[in-house]
Amino acid sequence: MLKLIYTDTGFGLELVEQAVEEWLQARLLLSLRASTSFWLDPGRASFGITSNLPCLSAFQQAIERENQAIAPENRLIELSCLDDFSLEVSLRGVWIAQTSDRHEGVFVTRLSDRCEDLLWQLWQEAQIFASLASLSLDLGT
After folding, report:
1. What is the distance between the alpha carbons of residues 116 and 100, in angstroms, rounded to a whole number?
2. Rounded to whole angstroms, how far apart are CA atoms 3 and 10?
């Protein structure tokens, strides 16, 4: 399962070795025991990645295989062009937050193992490239 974490200061992605249903059940129990609200909404989440990442073509092929016989409105994952340098990954899953109007929360989805692994790898590569770009700017090069 993929877990996307949206906070007021950023975004994170985790690969979790647990079924979505099990994770949601544990999260609901935690909210009940902690007496906090729990809002759940099936929907879509998106985030951007740069288009020059090394394993991008393998990821695109995995998406094509995953979406092969699925109607567009039922696809769990889509990749679209934002501009010459970036792409948008759009996922179908479940949004969890404290209330319906919160912008911070967690989004969970389950894709094929291949797509999840490649998306995780892309995410890690993007973080490395972002760190290197930031280091370059800090060093003035």
Report:
1. 27
2. 14
Return the biggest CA–CA distance within the chain: 52
Residue 15 structure tokens: 């690969």
Q: Is the pLDDT of residue 141 over 60?
A: no
> Measured between alpha carbons, how far is 129 from 123 in angstroms, rounded to an integer?
10
- β-sheet bridge partners, residue 50: 86
108 with 94: CB under 8 angstroms?
yes
Alpha carbon of 39 to those of 21, 28, 100: distances in Å?
Answer: 15, 9, 6
Q: What is the pLDDT of residues 6-60, one digit of tens each?
A: 999 888 999 999 999 999 999 999 999 999 988 999 999 998 888 888 889 999 9
Going through the chain in order, the beta strands assigned E by DSSP cover 2-7, 10-15, 39-50, 77-81, 86-97, 105-109
For the ranges 9-23, 41-55, 82-96, 121-135, the lowest mean pLDDT is seen at 121-135
